[in-house]
Structures are given as C-alpha cells and as structure tokens.
Design a protein that fits this description.
single chain, Rossmann fold, 2 domains, 7-stranded mixed β-sheet, 8 helices, 14 strands, globular, nucleotide biosynthesis, ribose phosphate diphosphokinase activity
Length: 313
C-alpha cells in the first residue's frame, strides 16, 4: 500500500488570523485551534488544542510592531517544538525588524540577524516570507528560507490596467534593482528618485533621475511606513509632467499620519498586499491578497515539489 503523506497542521498568530484563514481555505485545510491564556500584567501563553506530534506545522504570523507579534511567533514555535512536531515552518508574510540589516553607524544592533537567531532557537526548521527589506537577510539563517516575491501578485494587476506610456519608478536608490526587475517584465522605462534624509522617516531633499513627461508612473517599494517617501515622490513626478502616479508596496505598515498623507497626495492609488491588516479603509488603497501564493508554496513545500516557478524576480 503506497505511503500517504499526512496533511500538515496550520496555525495562526493573533495578528494574522484573517490572512491565515484565507491561506488555510486556499490550501484546502482547516485552521488549527490555539488557546491564548493572558495574565493581568500582559504576559500571554499560547497552547495548541490538538496534537502536533510528528506532524508538519505551519505557523502563520507577520512580525510587524509591536514586539508582542514577534514574541507570539517565538512562543508558538517553542510550543510546537516541545510538542514534538516533526517540521516547524514559520510563515511570516512580513518579516519585521528587517530594516536593521547592517551596522550603519557605531554601537547599533543588527536586529534582523538577532530575529533570525531567535526564530531558529525557538524551533523553526524553515522560514517562508515575502519581499524582505534586504535580500541578504536570508544569509542570517542556517535553516532554509523561501523568499517569495509579491511581483507574482502585482504584475497581473498592473497588466490588467493597460496603462500606456508606462514607466516604473523607484522611490530611492536602494530599490532600483526591484524597479528594473519590474520594468523587464513590463517592458517599460525606469526612473529613480534620489533622496537625502535628516533622520529615519524624515526626508530633507529629493531629486528625480529620468524623464516622466507624459508617462503613467508606477512607484515600486517593499513597504510603506509613514508614506512620506511615496507621497513626496508622487507629488514630484506630477510636478515633472507625469500623467498619473500609482504606487505598489508589499507591506502596508502605514504608521503615524500615513493615511492622511496618502489621501492628500497626487497618488491615483496605492496597491498593497494583506501581509499586514490595514488599520482602516481608504478609497485610495487597493489590497491584493497573498493568501493563494502562500497556500501554493506551503503545499509545494509539504509535498517536496519545486517552488521555483514562484520566483518571477
């Protein structure tokens, strides 16, 4: 009698329950039950309410601030390890703390590497994530990392818009590689913004490298936090003669007065994924789900089949 691969167990951290439900539905499985006990001082303890012994476990949770989201993932991983799960995969649509990927000045931590080591120490045997802030973060892990690209979600949508005179733009020099990759698939021109910062999240000066006159521009970035860079870039491009400016950003952190900036900007729309749940709705923000992408990759990982077709970039 042929051996039948047992179905995996899929669980959700509290910050990603809705996305996890959609991933489980797309996978064709039920979301496992987790009980969270909380103490009056804020400490919490997760508990799997079903056996995971010998099973492949997928734990879904983005680790955007607050730091409780990361702590929750670590506790879930540790619980699965101590419950004798055979394979434990941390599915992190958004890998938080990734902006601390190097020492850019003296006496600062490399937070991304610290998080990688914490995940491995807690019990993760594999990581699945999407659009890391820096590709080299994969090298911080000793375990396999499946780094997915939201381009597989965004490109079909951009093609459906049928925009003429399309130009892809990077809001900063660091994102130029990503912009060039999009332009290759869309056969479009590329422009780049050069910015100087006073400090984190505060832009002092921005210049445009390239011509956007008469163009429909799409800004490409991995995340949008305060929305200062994207909205300033959009306003600059309209000033330089662009017909329209859209932006795609995989992870919608949208902190501070980001929503207000987007509403008052020259952006036609901001297109994001549901890797992080929106704090509120906006007519200018379109959300594309990443549930099918993660469900497909999880299925391929579980059945030991190739996922290379998911890497468009």
């Amino acid at each position: 009698m042929p051996y039948r691969v047992p179905e995996p167990k899929i669980f959700a951290c509290t910050q990603s329950v809705e996305l996890a439900k959609n991933i489980a539905k797309s996978y064709g499985a039920e979301l496992g039950e987790v009980l969270f006990s909380r103490y009056s001082d804020g400490e919490f303890q997760p508990s799997f309410e079903e056996s995971v012994r010998g099973a492949r476990v997928f734990i879904i949770g983005s680790t955007n601030p607050s730091s409780e989201n990361l702590m929750e993932m670590l506790l879930m991983l540790d619980a699965a390890k101590r419950a004798s799960a055979r394979h434990i995969t941390a599915v992190m649509p958004y890998f938080g703390w990734a902006r601390q990927d190097r020492k850019d000045k003296p006496r600062v931590p490399i937070g991304a590497k610290l998080v990688a080591k914490l995940l491995e120490a807690a019990g993760a045997t594999r990581i699945i994530t999407m659009d890391l802030h820096a590709d080299q973060i994969q090298g911080f892990f000793e375990k396999p990392v499946d780094h997915l690209f939201a381009s597989t979600i965004f490109l079909p949508y951009l093609r459906s818009l049928n925009l003429g005179n399309l130009t892809i733009a990077s809001p900063d020099m660091g994102g130029s590689k990503r912009a060039y990759a999009y332009s290759k698939f869309l056969e479009s021109d590329v422009v780049v913004c050069y910015k100087q910062r006073k400090k984190a999240n505060i832009i002092e000066h921005m210049e445009l490298i390239g011509d956007v006159t008469g163009k429909n521009v799409v800004l490409v970035d991995d995340m949008v936090d305060t929305a200062g860079t994207l909205t300033k870039a959009a306003d600059l491009m309209i000033e330089k003669g662009a017909v329209s400016v859209r932006a795609i950003a995989t992870h919608a952190l949208l902190s501070g007065n980001a929503y207000e900036k987007i509403e008052n900007s020259q952006l036609t729309e901001l297109i994001v994924t549901d890797s992080i749940p929106l704090k509120k709705k906006s007519d200018k923000i379109r959300v594309l789900t990443c549930a099918d992408l993660f469900a497909d990759v999880m299925h391929r990982v579980h059945h030991n089949t190739s996922i290379s077709s998911k890497f468009l970039m």
